[in-house]
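> example.struct
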């Protein structure tokens, strides 16, 4: 059977500027890969390629080129997952999603479980985006009021002293026994400043810091991981590690306490599962984070995560940020991500 395929480009609009240490995100481009059997065109598989500017190893032009190639020749998709698509991780993940969705009749029930039955939610962290000091203070209050027992702050843009003030305020009201506190620097700190920042964070019982210095500074990161009083989690450093040997070398050399896996940026489920296996073998903890996908990609990640032996809150609460997201059964409630099977998908805008 030879499938037909098409791709669709969409711009997602956040309902507020998404502040990061690299600047605010005011819009996001994603691509949908749609495949169907000409004999049964009503059944469509859909996958999402979510490029993340400033983080992804591929460029938008490369994504478009690969999607054109894939739509022109669908019989080679499985083989290409282990060949050229390894170097375009978001497209590789889109193909994985698309094929799996087609295999289940386009139902978006990619990994049936108690999660997709609506019987169990996935614990997630409450994310506080960067903004003004008062805006971040208000967002922290909102996250704790919503019942999140794990709160993650983006830091590195407001100024560390202001950010430490906010963390102290949070800790004053919520001790570590009540709220686990994570911070994500997105590589914002210089080598000379990082030790001081890490010491200050340790005084506040911070659970972990993601990527304190820029990716690629492996010697510096290894030294920080060995000496930091706060556990360090690698995030951006995982991106671009495309071979098994490269992944092993990174984990063995840097020896982080945790890794943060974004399937859209590391190459989908297969690559993510390899990261989990290698980390587990080395006693390194892990959690999964979305990368501002629409609900198509978020659903693919969440349903897969629900099949894993997760030990801590995951980073899957980003689906609410878009005002023009794909309508889906996903919902955040009670500090968890839920799948409400009684709700329908709204895929009207994804018809090629």
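> example.seq
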């Amino acid at each position: 059977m030879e499938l037909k395929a098409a791709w669709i480009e969409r711009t997602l609009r956040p309902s507020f500027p998404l502040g990061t240490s690299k600047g605010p995100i005011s819009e996001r481009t994603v691509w949908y890969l749609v495949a169907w059997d000409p004999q049964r065109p009503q059944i469509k598989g859909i996958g999402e390629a979510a490029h993340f500017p400033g983080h992804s190893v591929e460029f938008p032009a490369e994504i478009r080129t690969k999607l054109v190639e894939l739509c022109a020749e669908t019989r080679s998709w499985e083989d290409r997952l282990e060949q050229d698509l390894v170097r375009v991780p978001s497209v590789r993940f889109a193909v994985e999603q698309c094929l799996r969705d087609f295999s289940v009749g386009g139902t978006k029930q990619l990994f049936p479980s108690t999660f997709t039955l609506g019987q169990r939610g996935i614990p997630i962290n409450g994310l506080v985006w960067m903004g003004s000091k008062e805006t971040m203070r208000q967002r922290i209050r909102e996250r704790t009021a919503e019942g999140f027992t794990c709160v993650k702050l983006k830091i590195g843009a407001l100024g560390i002293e202001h950010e430490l003030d906010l963390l102290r305020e949070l800790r004053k009201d919520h001790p570590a026994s009540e709220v686990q506190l994570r911070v994500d620097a997105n590589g914002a700190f210089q080598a000379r400043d990082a030790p001081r920042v890490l010491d200050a964070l340790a005084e506040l019982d911070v659970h972990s810091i993601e990527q304190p210095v820029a990716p690629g500074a492996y010697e510096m990161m290894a030294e920080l991981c060995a000496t930091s009083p706060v556990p360090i989690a690698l995030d951006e450093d995982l991106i671009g590690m495309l071979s098994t040997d490269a992944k092993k070398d990174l984990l063995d050399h840097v020896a982080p306490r945790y890794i943060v896996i974004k399937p859209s940026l590391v190459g989908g489920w297969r690559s993510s599962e390899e990261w989990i296996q290698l980390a587990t073998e080395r006693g390194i903890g892990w959690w999964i984070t979305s990368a501002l996908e629409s609900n198509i990609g978020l659903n693919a990640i969440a349903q897969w995560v629900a099949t894993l032996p997760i030990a801590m809150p995951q980073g899957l609460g980003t689906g609410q940020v878009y005002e023009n997201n794909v309508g889906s059964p996903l919902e955040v409630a009670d500090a968890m991500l839920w799948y409400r099977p009684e709700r329908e998908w709204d895929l009207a805008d994804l018809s090629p």
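> remarks
The mean pLDDT is 95.
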